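Regression test case RT-17, inverse folding.

Input:
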């Protein structure tokens, strides 16, 4: 009988593969951990109301704008007459270092003795809770009608904050 070296090489390769396959079937495991930290609930409080001040209307319509910094400007037939002027101010508390966003409606209606007036709201968008707290402001532009009826006008709107 003649031994073919080619057959011996193939036989050796098959035996090595069988030995390796036996080793590959050995199992290994490790215990793995999992954890979570639940953040403090985010909360918001109003520290100052959005206030447009005391304004004088005329036969022409106009606007009163309160900037995010609380500065008042008027256009058209509106005259600024003093009174309390302020941006809406809010304080947010929650998890230190967490980012948050602000949601406000686009407009709010102020009602009183005459035709309702519309305020277009602006906000400064959110921020980060440095040390677990932050503040932000809301401004707006009030559309005052021509010959607007004298008296007090007010309205409410919802401000929401969420972790981002």
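Golden output:
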């Amino acid at each position: 009988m003649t031994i073919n070296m080619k057959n011996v090489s193939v036989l050796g390769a098959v035996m090595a593969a069988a030995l390796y396959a036996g080793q590959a079937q050995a199992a290994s495991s490790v215990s793995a951990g999992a954890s979570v930290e639940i953040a403090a609930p985010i909360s918001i409080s109003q520290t100052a109301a959005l206030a447009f001040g005391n304004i004088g209307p005329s036969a022409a319509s106009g606007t009163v704008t309160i900037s995010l910094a609380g500065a008042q400007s008027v256009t058209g037939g509106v005259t600024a007459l003093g009174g309390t002027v302020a941006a809406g101010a809010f304080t947010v508390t929650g998890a230190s270092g967490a980012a948050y966003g602000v949601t406000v409606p686009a407009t709010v209606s102020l009602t009183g003795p005459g035709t309702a007036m519309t305020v277009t709201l602006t906000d400064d968008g959110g921020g980060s809770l440095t040390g677990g707290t932050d503040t932000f402001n809301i401004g707006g532009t009030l559309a005052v009608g021509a010959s607007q009826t004298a008296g007090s006008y007010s309205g409410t709107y919802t401000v929401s904050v969420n972790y981002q």
